[in-house]
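Quarterly update from the structural biology core.
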Amino acid sequence: MRNDNSTFERVEEFKYLGTTLTNQNSIPEEIKSRLRSGNACYYLVQNLLSSRLLSKNVKIKIHRTIILVVVLYGCETWSLTLREERKLRVFENMVLRRIFGSRSDEVMGEWRRLHNEELNDLYSSPNSVWVISRRLRSAGHVAHMGEVRGVYRVLVGKL
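Predicted structure, tokenized:
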């Protein structure tokens, strides 16, 4: 493609400001990419998350300020299907299981993994899918504000 004596290569996808943009505008591919980045982040701090020296509150702050931020970067543009919601929840539950550890089963006398309901009870903050839906909702409110409002002009790039 040529534009004012400049030549641009046509590509199927490229990374811009940390977000993978594709010619098909593939949200599942972007979510996979964000989960891979979040997984890499998780493995960098997994020793901290399983350490007995740190409190659960500190571990949760590490999760929310390091891992979750990486995974949810750019999520304001995602429209999630049930499959993507499940992938996000599975990833988040994996991290929370590392934070909260396993439990002793009173009946069997063995250690077991925490069930999803138990994780939801222990982790009082909203899950990542809820955060995404809130961000989408607030972006929708801004989009309906009209050109008189400054925040709308920032959203559409007309300063």
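The first strand starts at residue 2 and ends at 3.
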